[in-house]
């Protein structure tokens, strides 16, 4: 999988001659799997046109904070919430100075002020401007606020001078963007994630299952890997591409998942049970296809082993996280499940909500642990997974 797969990257282009390189940067970001939207400052439009950037990004380029059409829906806030990362490349000396002072007088700076996403700036300017003390002070101020800096590079410049101030090469910039997602909050932690549905066969052609797509579990495995964890994913049947850097074991039935969990649980630090495991299976699985008859058909079901309770009940059990998909009384049922199964944390959601839950790309969760809770608002499952992994890591470390 590409380095920026499933990532929403907002590129802010500012008024530097190096802006002519941005169409290639956008193309490379998309090649790495990113969804890219571009904001062009008024100065940047003197060096590169919106039409070019729209063509390579596949999205409308935004320029004006007071765009009546876009701002009817609070467009700058929508972009701030949409972005998983904000990349300012090239970042001119003037723009760095504005950003360090907290300006929010145009579309790009307003987005930076309104977003919780990590910000990466790639400076590009004349050697003397780069060496100026005002630039150094502005950069120091931004870095103290958590802004990441990539570059500049050294070499010949448009003004004829040679030295520091060139925009870094695209490959270096893309690597720095990818590193924004490697938070390291789970470094040296061993994580097991279960994902997807299970299938309980009635005969060779029929089975009992559920609507789980596996998207949330796969997103969690990917997010944990990005955060530095050593991850094993145990997956039921899905149509999803396996996350890069994650060990995957494929299973079909609940009993197969239980066996795989038991065989791999040793030395696991955090167990995240996101799979929708069948509670019951047919008592008898026919070896041949059951033929239709005029009479009614009865199917006797027997319970499967409770994987989550089994893991939580182990001696030296890992930190256990469960999921609860409910249609009503979310808090009551989630807390009851957490107590009954003896787990450390549970993430719950209502599956009858529009646009969330099974098969959707978005979800929202209410997370409970001990006597605390936190709501993770509706957003993409990829973004939601990163926030949940950060929370799990924090609570896990507090429990040690």
Figure out the total of helices: 14
Which structural category fits the helices and strands?
alpha/beta
The CATH class designation of the largest domain is Alpha Beta
Number of strands: 19
Average per-residue pLDDT, rounded, comes to: 89
Strand order, largest beta sheet:
12-11-8-13-16-17-18-19
The N- to C-terminal Cα distance equals: 34 Å
Outline, from the CA principal axes? elongated
Q: What is the percentage of strand-forming residues? A: 15-25%
Count of the domains: 2
Poorly predicted runs of 5 or more residues:
none
Write the layout of secondary structure elements.
Blueprint: E1 8-13, H1 22-31, E2 35-40, H2 50-57, H3 68-71, H4 75-82, E3 85-91, H5 93-100, H6 107-114, E4 119-123, H7 127-131, H8 133-144, E5 148-149, E6 153-156, E7 162-166, H9 170-179, E8 190-195, E9 200-203, E10 206-208, H10 215-226, E11 230-235, E12 247-250, H11 254-264, E13 270-273, E14 280-282, E15 301-303, H12 307-312, E16 319-326, H13 330-341, E17 345-350, E18 362-369, E19 372-380, H14 381-399
Parallel strand pairs: 1-2, 1-3, 3-4, 4-5, 8-11, 8-13, 11-12, 13-16, 16-17
Antiparallel strand pairs: 6-7, 9-10, 14-15, 17-18, 18-19
Helix pairs in contact: 1-2, 1-9, 4-6, 5-8, 10-14
């Amino acid at each position: 999988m590409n380095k920026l797969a499933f990532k929403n990257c907002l590129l802010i282009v500012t008024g530097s001659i190096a802006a002519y390189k941005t169409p290639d940067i956008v193309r490379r970001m998309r090649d790495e799997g990113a969804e890219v939207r571009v904001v062009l400052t008024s100065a940047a439009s003197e060096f590169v046109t919106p039409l070019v950037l729209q063509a390579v990004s596949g999205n409308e380029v935004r320029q004006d904070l007071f765009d009546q059409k876009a701002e009817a829906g609070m467009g700058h806030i929508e972009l701030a919430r949409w972005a998983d990362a904000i990349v300012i490349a090239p970042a001119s000396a003037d723009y760095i100075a504005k950003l360090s002072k907290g300006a929010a007088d145009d579309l790009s700076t307003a987005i930076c002020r309104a977003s919780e996403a990590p910000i990466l700036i790639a400076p590009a300017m004349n050697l003397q401007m780069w060496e100026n003390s005002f630039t150094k002070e502005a950069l120091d101020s931004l870095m103290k606020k958590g802004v990441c800096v990539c570059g500049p590079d050294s070499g010949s410049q448009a003004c004829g001078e040679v030295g520091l101030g060139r925009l870094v090469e695209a490959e270096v910039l893309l690597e720095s963007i990818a590193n924004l997602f490697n938070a390291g909050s789970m470094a040296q932690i061993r994580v097991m994630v279960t994902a997807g549905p299970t299938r309980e066969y009635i005969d060779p052609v029929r089975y009992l299952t559920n609507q789980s797509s596996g998207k949330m579990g796969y997103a969690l495995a990917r997010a944990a890997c990005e955060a530095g964890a050593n991850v094993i994913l145990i997956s039921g049947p899905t149509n999803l591409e396996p996350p890069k850097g994650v060990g995957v074991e494929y299973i079909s039935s609940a009993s197969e998942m239980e066996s795989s969990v038991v065989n791999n649980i040793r030395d696991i630090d955090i167990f995240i049970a996101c799979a929708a495991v069948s509670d019951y299976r047919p008592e008898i699985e026919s070896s041949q296809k059951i033929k239709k008859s005029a009479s009614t058909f009865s199917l006797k079901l027997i319970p499967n082993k409770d994987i989550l309770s089994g893991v939580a009940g182990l001696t030296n059990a890992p930190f256990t996280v469960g999921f609860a998909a409910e249609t009503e009384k979310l808090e009551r049922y989630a807390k009851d499940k957490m107590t009954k199964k003896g787990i450390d944390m549970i993430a719950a959601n209502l599956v009858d909500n529009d646009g969330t839950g099974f098969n959707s790309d978005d979800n929202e969760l209410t997370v409970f642990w001990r006597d605390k809770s936190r709501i993770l608002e509706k957003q993409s499952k990829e973004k939601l997974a990163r926030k949940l992994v950060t929370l799990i890591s924090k609570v896990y470390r507090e429990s040690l």
